[in-house]
Amino acid sequence: MTNSPAGEEKGKEWDEGAPVPRTWTHLQMATMKALKTRNALVRECMAELLGTFVLLLFGCSAAAQVKTSRETKGQYLSVNMAFSVGVMSAMYLTKGISGAHLNPAVTLSFCALGQVSWDRLVPYCLSQLLGAYIASGLVYLVYYEGTQPNAIMNFSGGVLTVYGPNETASIFATYPSEFLSLGGVLWQVVGTSMLMLCILGLGEQRNTPAPSDLIPAIVAVIVLGISMSMSGNCGAAINPARDLGPRLFTLTAGWGPEVFTCYNYWFWVPLVAPCIGALIGTLLYQILISLHLPDPAEPERVCVCHVSTITMAVKQPEPKMSSAGTGRS
């Protein structure tokens, strides 16, 4: 069956890149408009979910690679750097929608400062927790792929446990060193305090604010510094969602309730201590820095006594003599 000349001409015009019919453009615009979420809270929660997902996907993937390869494909520093890259990427991705908290402790601090409404605390935290859970599941799925025993099972000898040299639970959540007691609480408090103390000044216009476009990169460097210096004893969770989300996943993926009962119910430490630390860091910033910065609305006062003293100390120049007095013509 042959096409009519008109049909051939019409097909030829379409193949040559004729403009898309207006009806199709309108359909695309209508579809995109329908997909746009009008509720501000829903938009922000989706951003927090996606941002925390990106953060954990980078970090836990690096941890899995280093652990299952027995450090032949990376080292401890690789995990620290991967989490920092995840922080930077997630902040650039979501900063314009939700502010890129990515951390319940950070959200709690901003609520305490009055920069975020308290009614957003629980939705933000649940979104961050869900994002961390989904990311952990994807990391496990990636390493489960294959017909042979997957990398995690091969490393652990087929036993998913939180103890021993072949444990794999630390790929996802943080656990203390064998010798550590409740002293790990202090590490989590100090680490999160440093996080808030350092990031609160980045946008302070009365001090030396960082360029807005560079804030994600600077925060990533701060996180890298904390993880490189304060994570040896019990990991640098400094983020309840980063720890609880993956821990919940390991509970449901075969590691069992040991992920919560091990080390004298350690799980509450990275859940509670970062929140305490974030509030302490925020309080320190307010008391030691914010209260002492100049108010741009009030001009700085100049002490008249100092000015007059300086003026009086300056020797007054002697009056110039006329040309007649000098004998010059």
From TrEMBL:
Domain of life: Eukaryota
Keyword flag Transmembrane: yes
Gene Ontology CC annotations of this record: basolateral plasma membrane
Compartment(s): Membrane
Record keywords, A-Z: Membrane, Transmembrane, Transmembrane helix, Transport
Molecular-function annotations in GO: glycerol channel activity; urea transmembrane transporter activity; water channel activity
Sequence intervals crossing the membrane: 76-94, 121-143, 185-202, 214-238, 265-285
Catalytic reaction(s) noted: urea(in) = urea(out); glycerol(in) = glycerol(out); H2O(in) = H2O(out)
Membrane topology listed for this record: Multi-pass membrane protein
InterPro entries in UniProt: Aquaporin-like (IPR023271), MIP (IPR000425), MIP/Aquaporin (IPR050363), MIP_CS (IPR022357)
Family assignment from sequence similarity: Belongs to the MIP/aquaporin (TC 1.A.8) family.
UniProt protein name: Aquaporin 10a
